[in-house]
Amino acid sequence: MKRTEILASKVLKVVERIARNEVEKSVLGRTAECAAIYHQPKRPKRREN
Known about the structure:
Largest sheet: none
Radius of gyration: 22 Å
């Protein structure tokens, strides 16, 4: 591949990611959040010897 083709493909990927993020923002009204934040397992109770 020529250097310009490689550069064009990288630019296209970046523009696609930016467009996808903007659509998600406009549809959800906020940025997407990681669901792992809401999953907090309970800690085991401390045993007294």
